[in-house]
Write a structure and sequence with these properties.
heterodimer, A: mainly beta, 4-stranded antiparallel β-sheet, B: globular
C-alpha cells in the first residue's frame, strides 16, 4: 500500500533561520506531489507542485522554494524564514489526475 | 468569481439532524469533484468522490449539478463525530493541473 511521510510534526524556528521540510512517498512510482500551506483558520494555499524529478511549478511568489531530487521525495525550503511563513504545511500525492490527493500528517511551523 | 466557493458556516446542528452543504465552481470544464473532511489541526482526508449520477456512502450523499455548477453533500443522522470542516474540491482542468480546494464549511454537531 502507498504511504506518505512528512517530518517533523512541529517546528519552532527563529526569524531569519533556514527551513527544510521533507516529504516522501512509498509504494508508488512517479506520483504527482504537492506542497500546501494553511494559515490559522484559513483555507489551503497551493505553494508548489511537481509532476516528475526536477520539475517544479510555483503557484505564488514567496520566500520558499521546492525541490524534487528523487522520484518519491519532495523538499520545501527557505533560506531565511519570515514571521508570515508560520502555518501548517501539508504535502500531498496523487496517482493520476482524477483520483484525488492523499495528504501527509503535516508540519506545524511557528516562526518566532 | 472565486473558482470554488463554499458557505464557511459554522453549521451548528443537533445529533440526528440532516445537514446539507453546497459548493459552487466557476469553470464549466471541471471534470472531477471531491469532498474532503478536515478535523481540527489535522490533515484533510478524502471523504468521497462526487460522480455525475450522484453517489451515496452510508449516511453521506454527494450530488453534482453540472448545469448549475454546484456540488452538494448531505449528511443524515448526524453524529458528534461528524464535527469537522468539509472541503469542496474541484479539478478545474484535465491532466496534471492541481485540484482547487474551497475554504471549507465548518460543522458542529451538538449533543
Amino acid at each position: 500500500s502507498q504511504t506518505i511521510h512528512q517530518w517533523p510534526a512541529t517546528l519552532v524556528q527563529p526569524v531569519g533561520s533556514p527551513l527544510s521540510l521533507e516529504c516522501t512517498v512509498e509504494g508508488t512510482s512517479n506520483p504527482n506531489l504537492y506542497w500546501y500551506r494553511q494559515a490559522a483558520g484559513r483555507g489551503l494555499q497551493l505553494l508548489f507542485y511537481s509532476v516528475g524529478i526536477g520539475q517544479i511549478s510555483s503557484e505564488v511568489p514567496q520566500n520558499l522554494s521546492a525541490s524534487r531530487p528523487q522520484d518519491r521525495q519532495f523538499i520545501l525550503s527557505s533560506k531565511k524564514l519570515l514571521l508570515s511563513d508560520s502555518g501548517f504545511y501539508l504535502c500531498a500525492w496523487e496517482r493520476t489526475g482524477l483520483s484525488g490527493y492523499t495528504f501527509g500528517s503535516g508540519t506545524r511551523l511557528t516562526v518566532v | 468569481r472565486k473558482e470554488v466557493e463554499q458557505d464557511p458556516g459554522p453549521f451548528n446542528v443537533p445529533e440526528g439532524a440532516t445537514v446539507a452543504f453546497n459548493c459552487t465552481y466557476s469553470n464549466s470544464a471541471s471534470q472531477s469533484f471531491f469532498w474532503y473532511r478536515q478535523d481540527c489541526r489535522k490533515e484533510p482526508k478524502l471523504l468521497m468522490s462526487v460522480y455525475s449520477s450522484g453517489n451515496e456512502d452510508g449516511r453521506f450523499t454527494a450530488q453534482l449539478n453540472r448545469a448549475s455548477q454546484y456540488i452538494s453533500l448531505l449528511i443524515r443522522d448526524s453524529k458528534l463525530s461528524d464535527s469537522a470542516t468539509y472541503l469542496c474540491v474541484v479539478n478545474t482542468f484535465s491532466g496534471n493541473t492541481p485540484l482547487v480546494f474551497g475554504k471549507g464549511t465548518r460543522l458542529s454537531v451538538i449533543a
